[in-house]
Inverse folding.
C-alpha cells in the first residue's frame, strides 16, 4: 500500500469521521445485531402503551425485578419497578453509590400515533356499521385509509372490572378499515391539499354490515354489532363511555429489503428505543449509580396527563428512592443524567430537501444524538449542554459504539419535541439519543437493524 501523504494523515487526524456502520461489519457482529432485532420484532407485536407496559414488566420480572413496595428498604443491586396506572412504568436498579451522587436515567415513550374511538363511537349509516374516531398524535390522515386495522384497548365497567380487547391481529380474526373514495369519483377530493385529503371526521372505521333479524327494530346492523360485543365482552353501548379503544394498523413487523437489513413495523416510534432501554436496564447488575428506565405514555400528545413525563411520576420515583436512602432529592436530581431515548428522522433519498444533509441522520450510521429539537429559533427545546454532549460522546467512543448526530429537518421547516425538555426541567442533564426512522408516524415505519443494536449498546454502557 502506498504511504499516506501528509495531507491524508492530517485529514485522518483532524476530520470528523462519518462511516456507514455496515460497511465493514463482521459476521459475528451481524449475528448479534440480527438476534437482538428478532427479540425486538417479537416485542413489536404489542402495540399500545398498556400492552407494552404489561409485556415490559413481564420481561423485567424474568430479570429479577419486583413490584415497588413503599414499606420495604432497598439495598445496592436490588431491582424494582413502579407501575403507573398500567400505561407507564419505571424500572430501577439500585446503585452502590447513594442517589445523591446522581442516577442514570433512560426515558423512552411507548404510546404511538393511532386513532382512538370517540366516547360514542358506534353508528349505522347506509346499512353499514362504523366507529367514529379521534386521531392521536401527528398523523398524515390519508395514510390510514384502506389498510387492515386492529382494535386494542380496554372497557372499564361500572363494577370495577376491566376487560381487555385485542382483535384484528390474527389472520383468522376479522380486521377493520377506513374507506377512501375511488379515483373515478375523487375529482373534487383530489383538489384538496394533501393534509386535507382525508379529514379528521372522515376517519370512520368500518365494523360491519350484517343486520340483526327482526321485522320491527331499527338500526339492525348496529344492533347486531352490539350483540356480538355483548356476547364477546359482556358490554353494552354505554360501556364505550368508559373505554380506551385504539385503532392501529394490523401489520406485523417484517424484514425489509432483499438483504434483510431493515425492519418495517407500526410504532417503531418509540418502541425502537423503549426496547433497547428496557433490555439494557434488565441486564444492568450492581451498577455504580442507580439505573432508572422510564417508559412513558402520552409523548405523542405533548406528555401532559398523569402517565406522561410532564407529570411528577418520574420525580416521585426518584424522591422515594432518595427518602429511603436518607439523601437530599434535589441534590440527586442536580447530579443525575438522562438519555431521552427517542427516534429522529432519517435522511430519505426521495425527500432529501427537507433536511440539511451535513447535519441529518442516516440509516446504518448508528445511534443518533440530537442536541436540540424545537421549531423556528429552537423554540420549545432543551438544548443539551456542550459539557454533557462531551460526556456522552466520550462514553460512546470508549465503548466503540457506532453513533452520529442529527437534527429534526432543516431550519425553519416544521420541528418537533421529545420528553427531553420535561426531564431537563427537573434539573437533570439530558440529551436525545435514539434510532433514525424513515416514514415516521406512518402505519409502517422503517428502521435499520444496526441502529437498533447500537442504541441498545448505548443504553447498556450508560447504566452499567
Ligand atoms: Mn417519539
Ligand atoms: Mn413521535
Amino acid at each position: 500500500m502506498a504511504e499516506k501523504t501528509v495531507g491524508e494523515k492530517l485529514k485522518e487526524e483532524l476530520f470528523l469521521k462519518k462511516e456507514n456502520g455496515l460497511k465493514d461489519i463482521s459476521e459475528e457482529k451481524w449475528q448479534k445485531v440480527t438476534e437482538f432485532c428478532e427479540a425486538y420484532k417479537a416485542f413489536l407485536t404489542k402495540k399500545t402503551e398498556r400492552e407494552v407496559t404489561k409485556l415490559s414488566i413481564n420481561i423485567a420480572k424474568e430479570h429479577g425485578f419486583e413490584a415497588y413496595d413503599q414499606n420495604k428498604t432497598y439495598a445496592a443491586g436490588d431491582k424494582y419497578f413502579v407501575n403507573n396506572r398500567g400505561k407507564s412504568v419505571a424500572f430501577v436498579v439500585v446503585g452502590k453509590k447513594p442517589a445523591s451522587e446522581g442516577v442514570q436515567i433512560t426515558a423512552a415513550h411507548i404510546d404511538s400515533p393511532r386513532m382512538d374511538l370517540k366516547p360514542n363511537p358506534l353508528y349505522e349509516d347506509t346499512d353499514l356499521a362504523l366507529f367514529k374516531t379521534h386521531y392521536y398524535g401527528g398523523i398524515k390522515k390519508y395514510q390510514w385509509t384502506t389498510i387492515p386495522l386492529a382494535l386494542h384497548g380496554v372497557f372499564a365497567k361500572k363494577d370495577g372490572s376491566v376487560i381487555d380487547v385485542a382483535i384484528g391481529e390474527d389472520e383468522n380474526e376479522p380486521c377493520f378499515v377506513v374507506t377512501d373514495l375511488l379515483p373515478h369519483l375523487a375529482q373534487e377530493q383530489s383538489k384538496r391539499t394533501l393534509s386535507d385529503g382525508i379529514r379528521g371526521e372522515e376517519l370512520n372505521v368500518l365494523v360491519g354490515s350484517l343486520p340483526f333479524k327482526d321485522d320491527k327494530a331499527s338500526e339492525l346492523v348496529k344492533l347486531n354489532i352490539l350483540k356480538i360485543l355483548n356476547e364477546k365482552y359482556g358490554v353494552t353501548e354505554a360501556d364505550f363511555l368508559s373505554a380506551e379503544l385504539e385503532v392501529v394498523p394490523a401489520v406485523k413487523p417484517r424484514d425489509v429489503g432483499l438483504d434483510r437489513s431493515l425492519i418495517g413495523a407500526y410504532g417503531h416510534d418509540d418502541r425502537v428505543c423503549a426496547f433497547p432501554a428496557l433490555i439494557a436496564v434488565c441486564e444492568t447488575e450492581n451498577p455504580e449509580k442507580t439505573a432508572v428506565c422510564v417508559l412513558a405514555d402520552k409523548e405523542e400528545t405533548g406528555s401532559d396527563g398523569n402517565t406522561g413525563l410532564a407529570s411528577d411520576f418520574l420525580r416521585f420515583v426518584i424522591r422515594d428512592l432518595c427518602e429511603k436512602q436518607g439523601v437530599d432529592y434535589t441534590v440527586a436530581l442536580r447530579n443525575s443524567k438522562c438519555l431521552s431515548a427517542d427516534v429522529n428522522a432519517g435522511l430519505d433519498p426521495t425527500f432529501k430537501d427537507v433536511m440539511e444533509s451535513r447535519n441529518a441522520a442516516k440509516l446504518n450510521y448508528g445511534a443518533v444524538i440530537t442536541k436540540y429539537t424545537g421549531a423556528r429559533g429552537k423554540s420549545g427545546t432543551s438544548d443539551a449542554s456542550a459539557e454533557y454532549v462531551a460526556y456522552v460522546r466520550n462514553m460512546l467512543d470508549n465503548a466503540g459504539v457506532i453513533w452520529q448526530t442529527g437534527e429534526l429537518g432543516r431550519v425553519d421547516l416544521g420541528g418537533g419535541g421529545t420528553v427531553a425538555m420535561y426531564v431537563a426541567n427537573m434539573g437533570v442533564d439530558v440529551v436525545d439519543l435514539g434510532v433514525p426512522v424513515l416514514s415516521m408516524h406512518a402505519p409502517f415505519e422503517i428502521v435499520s437493524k444496526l441502529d437498533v443494536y447500537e442504541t441498545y449498546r448505548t443504553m447498556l454502557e450508560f447504566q452499567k
